[in-house]
Amino acid sequence: MSPRGPGFVTPDYWDEACKHLAKRDRVMRKLIPKLGEARLESRGDAFTTLARSIVGQQISVPAAQAVWERFAALFEGGSAVHVRPAGVLAADSAALRGAGLSARKIEYLRDLAGHFDGGTVHVRNWTSMDDESIIDELVAIRGIGRWTAEMFLIFHLMRPNVLPLDDLGLLKGISQHYFSGEPVSRNEAREVGDAWAPFRSVATWYLWRSLDPRVTY
């Protein structure tokens, strides 16, 4: 991974992936040059990234940001870097509700904090674990399903070969660029994605960017 501005890192494999995809896929050959130097970026640590994903569930992006800022302000220091598992476990329920969190999201955040505080997620071992093993650890946490785990693999761990077949944006991108706008099934999307290996995350990211240039997580 390489630094790209304060607090950001980008994957070292990106240029190799772009060459590979452009050589093997006609759509990628056109899309990649259109999007210029933009590339996947990761920021923040594992706990805060997953906590933000829980806070943002089923609400708009602006609303999620507002709730997150109020939530982070509850902790000493008042920013995301100060949101730690032990602090979430000790936080007052009324204060969490006052920040705009539902009772269910509070339960989810505490379960997440408990997994990190108790060591049942093996963060230090993730670099040597395969994608499915990490997904298995993450979906054991309340409020985290497979889609969230796959987004975490792509945007935080920057794994190169994730194909999130439950993602509506991916399916829409495949429909638009490969099937002339016709709906696509998961099996059809998987067949398209198989040609992108071992850089399916990169191709997915370019399809997302083709629909919305502000893709982030």
TrEMBL record:
<dbReference type="GO" id="GO:0032993">
    <property type="term" value="C:protein-DNA complex"/>
</dbReference>
<dbReference type="GO" id="GO:0006285">
    <property type="term" value="P:base-excision repair, AP site formation"/>
</dbReference>
<keyword id="KW-0227">DNA damage</keyword>
<keyword id="KW-0326">Glycosidase</keyword>
<dbReference type="GO" id="GO:0008725">
    <property type="term" value="F:DNA-3-methyladenine glycosylase activity"/>
</dbReference>
<keyword id="KW-0378">Hydrolase</keyword>
<dbReference type="GO" id="GO:0043916">
    <property type="term" value="F:DNA-7-methylguanine glycosylase activity"/>
</dbReference>
<dbReference type="Pfam" id="PF00730">
    <property type="entry name" value="HhH-GPD"/>
</dbReference>
<feature type="domain" description="HhH-GPD">
    <location>
        <begin position="55"/>
        <end position="212"/>
    </location>
</feature>
<dbReference type="GO" id="GO:0032131">
    <property type="term" value="F:alkylated DNA binding"/>
</dbReference>
<dbReference type="InterPro" id="IPR051912">
    <property type="entry name" value="Alkylbase_DNA_Glycosylase/TA"/>
</dbReference>
<dbReference type="GO" id="GO:0006307">
    <property type="term" value="P:DNA alkylation repair"/>
</dbReference>
<protein>
    <recommendedName>
        <fullName>DNA-3-methyladenine glycosylase II</fullName>
        <ecNumber>3.2.2.21</ecNumber>
    </recommendedName>
</protein>
<keyword id="KW-0234">DNA repair</keyword>
<comment type="similarity">
    <text>Belongs to the alkylbase DNA glycosidase AlkA family.</text>
</comment>
<dbReference type="InterPro" id="IPR003265">
    <property type="entry name" value="HhH-GPD_domain"/>
</dbReference>
<dbReference type="InterPro" id="IPR011257">
    <property type="entry name" value="DNA_glycosylase"/>
</dbReference>
